[in-house]
Amino acid sequence: MRVAVVAPSPVPFRRGGAERLWAGLEHALVEAGHDAELIKLPVRELVLPDLVSGYEQFAGLDLSHFDLVISGKYPAWMIEHPNHVVYLLHPLRGLYDLYPATHLEDERIPSDIDIDAAMAIIEDGPVHSDPLELIDRVRAAARRLGNNHPAMAIPGPLARAVVHHLDRVALDRRRIRRHAAISRTVARRPGYFPPDVTVDAVHPPTSLTVGPPGPYDDYFFTVSRLEPIKRLDLLVESMRHVPGPTRLLIAGEGPDRSRLESLAAGDPRVELIGDVGDDELAALYANARAVAFVPADEDYGYVALEAMLHARAVLTCSDSGGPTELADERTGMVVDADPRSVGAALARLSDDPETARQLGEAALARARQVTWGSVLETLTSPRVRRRSDPPKVVVLSTYPVFKGIGGGPQRCRNLYASLTAAADVELVSLTADDGLIRGHTLGVGFREVSVPMSARHHDAETELRRLTGRVGVTDIGASLLYEASPLLVREIDAALSEAAGVVLAHPYMHPAVESLRPDLPIVLDAHNAELALKATVLPADEAGAWWLRHVERVERAAVAASRVVTVTTETDAATLSSTYGVPTDRFVVIGNGVDTRSKPMIAAADRKRNRAGLLAQLGRPPDESLALFLGSGHQPNVIAGRAIMESAADLYGTTFVLAGAHTELLNPGDAPPNVRLLGVIGDSQRDALLAGADLALNPMAAGGGSNLKLLEYFAWGVPVVTTLVGARGIPAADKLCVVVQPHQLTEGVVAVLGDPAAASERAGLARRYAEQQADWDVLGKQFVEVVTRGLGL
After folding, report:
1. How many helices, marked H, and strands, marked E, lie in the chain?
2. Is residue 580 over pLDDT 70?
3. How far is CA 346 from CA 236, 291, 295, 336, in A?
4. Which domains does the chain show, CATH number per domain?
5. 0.70 exceeded by the pTM?
6. Beta strands across the sheet bearing 247-251
7. Residue 428 belongs to what H/E stretch?
């Protein structure tokens, strides 16, 4: 396999146990015949903005060209990959089990607009949250308050809340294929892992070159970073209870050195010898009487393992954590963590070299059982789904969803995320983009595998498209040509092998399910009544008729095979029922929706100010009104765009902004001076337009399903002019917007601009409609109930 080991590189850099583990794991993978690479990104963690930037770096790292990704530390485990195994060393312990008690006593998070928004995201929980939105909020607060503001401190209550949330998202069972830990101590720590996962504990071997055991000389040895949690002061104080000349050698450096030197003053047997190289370290192990390692709740403890590999007995404490998993009374001594108990054990080993030798030989036999083979068997073997795992639902789509561009992908991304309340969701999509299979995490428990069509598939589709002119046929073509893309068939087959049921986003991948797993229960999410929709866009000739006959066959079979068909409007339900002779009780209306929480209702005064800035950017007079139309490259949007350009010629006091992929299919030469064609725009520019437009347009003359852009207009509180077709699926639409015939667009614009009070009232009602009936959260609860019942989950 192609395996990536992914890890943070600490800034400033220091080579510790984690760095040795990564290198050893990479080497072991290569020795086992895998193609392995260690990939590290620099991470600073002095203040919270730096740390969340590390999480963002790893979240954006595309390693889809690897078969397996292994991570083990924050923030590297934020990476998205469909086959991601976590081999956990530890999270940021200063925000977990080592979080200062003084902070717990005084947990105050300052009030700030972005911090408040961040906390709202955290309070919503990790299941449906966007970790990048949380990171953006933290960064925005830091820009205003400054990186060194107390709110941004690590440790601190805000840092603790943010990092816990990001880790919960990253380690959720629906993102990670297997959870493992370097020790049982780590696996059992509260809060380190999600409560609903099984954790495999497997000890990693050391990368230190081990030499032959030497004599049991008259000194005890330990090596550690000099810091309080390592409890080297306990060792120093215990020497007061050890008679005789036996020395204690302490290797390592750290912030606790001066305090330890003060404690050791007056006892020449205690020596702090500083940092040592690997060769000297091995020699110090190999010749010691025994090795003492007494930290508090250590994650694992390479010191204990390395000592045992040199046939040295290990003295540790009952509360030392990881070392007690390796060392016990047969391979060393485990005592209480007080100077007298530790000193008594050291004195016994000092007086009895033979006992030290016998314990050391037993320790060597135990340590030899810790191998990379055991680690690799755990990390690289296929994960078998357990009975306790949630069921898996597979969604099949003829277009990628992760980009979220267009009404269909928005519906898929928002609505199907609700299914994670009851199941793991894997979406397999077809894309015309060149490149490799890409894995994308769309949310906790919601993955997409995007598969590029093969060259053969692409060429065949190109030939078929000659029959339709400029009308795209990727969706219909997939039902005919999916077998020409072997990678697509492979990914669908693999996904279906573990599935409890299938959701079809449109009917066109039904032939693949029928071929590969005809026994699986199906729910069809009919974004449109496809036959009726395609009849409005395909050419009215023999070729168009051929395509329509095929659409009818595919849609008829998908509707007949589905236990439930969700539709976006009552009209589509009636159309599908009458066309295919299916009872109406098989259809359930789940309309399209909008995320109202992320779209503020803009007051009229604020909208006016925003408009002035937009007009200046567009090079238009400041006293003009601003009308907006958003649309994808879907053919009905192109037709609507042309209608707007024709009407704009009669409305010179208004600037018309058209944005989205449909503008690329319009002729700029047909646009009058008061029309701006912006093309595809980013989210920030889109939001700015929606926050500043005087009115939004939806003059659709054709189309199926319900219209997402209309709901987005409603959520932003923009007064709307729409056709009846554009308002399909909206009850009492004339109460929420101005409804006109396609040829009456000019009159509709004049009506809105001529009575701003009435327009504002309608916009307020439309916003309330969006919140109460069309928010994705509301619709998602309905959808998950329908699908779980339909699939029998």
Report:
1. 30, 26
2. yes
3. 12, 10, 16, 13
4. 2-201 (no CATH), 219-370 (3.40.50.2000), 392-589 (3.40.50.2000), 604-774 (3.40.50.2000)
5. no
6. 270-274, 247-251, 219-223, 290-292, 314-317, 332-335
7. strand 424-431
